[in-house]
Write a structure and sequence with these properties.
InterPro entries: CAF1_poly(A)_ribonucleases, RNase_CAF1, RNaseH-like_sf, RNaseH_sf. The chain is α+β, with helices and mostly antiparallel strands. Helix content is 48%, strand content 20%. Strand 3 and strand 4 form a beta hairpin. The protein is globular, with a radius of gyration of 23 Å.
Length: 261
């Protein structure tokens, strides 16, 4: 089963259940490259100790990115010796581009040829890859979100969000308190970015995310204060939800590590 960003969130409970019930798991990772052209002291040698080989390989592969993870979860069949049921998934991944995070990575021609040879789907990788981040990136974005230091990084997102703010501002001039408008086709991280920027820029509106729609409602100042401090939408709680979504596949991977299968 192929799993991309569109399917990941709804598949997560089942995946967690399968991992928890598995006797062991098998893992295979595809990268956009494996061996960078390191200087001679960093090149892998037959005389390297295992620890040296690992450190050199790790340094080399960090210049590339994970594009796919294959995972098979094996559960023993009760009453059957050495027989297992296997559940297999292919996860297409793409680095998180959210707020201050904008990863850079390389492609290696030989790795691209290898992936092409075995029918790798680059559209699923580039267009529907599940976001993920490492621990260092997670610390940075958590610090940024929880402190309210928010900025939209890419110029494309800035242009798109400017259009949204202009649209909402024009609507506000004619809207009455309680009126609402819908911004369609906004999902994922962009939906969070749009809401963060709108809430910061306009003190007399409130936003709600519903599937691929952002609903904007005109409210009074007291109502805005109440909504910000309501138990179901406290700013700290809301930002934790944003962080959870930004972590993406990292949530599942950390759960996989904890399971120690």
């Amino acid at each position: 089963m192929d799993v991309g960003a569109d399917e990941f969130e709804q598949s997560l409970p089942l995946l967690q259940e399968l991992v928890a019930g598995a006797d062991f798991v098998g893992l295979d990772i595809e990268f956009t490259g494996l061996r960078s052209n390191l200087s001679r002291p960093q090149q892998i040698s037959l005389f390297d100790l295992p620890s040296e080989w690992y450190l050199k390989t790790r340094q080399s592969v960090q210049q590339f990115t994970i594009c796919q993870i294959g995972l098979s979860m094996f559960s023993s069949i009760e009453g059957e010796s050495n027989k297992y049921v296997a559940h297999s998934c292919n996860f297409f991944l793409f680095p998180t581009t959210f707020g201050i995070l904008d990863s850079e990575f390389s492609f290696q021609a030989s790795s691209v040829q290898f992936l092409n040879q075995y029918g790798f789907d680059y559209n699923k990788f580039l267009k529907n890859g599940i976001p993920y981040m490492n621990e260092e990136q997670e610390k940075k974005i958590k610090h940024s979100i929880l402190r309210g230091n928010w900025r939209v990084r890419s110029s494309l997102d800035k242009d798109q969000i400017k259009v949204v703010i202009d649209k909402v501002t024009q609507w506000l001039d004619l809207a009455e308190e309680g009126d609402q408008m819908t911004l369609p086709g906004i999902a994922g991280f962009q939906a969070f970015e749009v809401q963060l920027v709108l809430r910061q820029a306009l003190p007399n509106i409130w936003t709600v995310l519903k599937e691929e729609w952002v609903i904007v409602k005109k409210v009074s100042q007291p109502q805005r204060w109440y909504l910000e401090h309501a138990s179901c939408d406290q700013v700290s709680c809301w930002k934790e939800q944003i962080l959870l979504s930004a972590r993406g596949f990292s949530v599942f991977f950390q759960m996989l590590v904890k399971a120690q299968k």
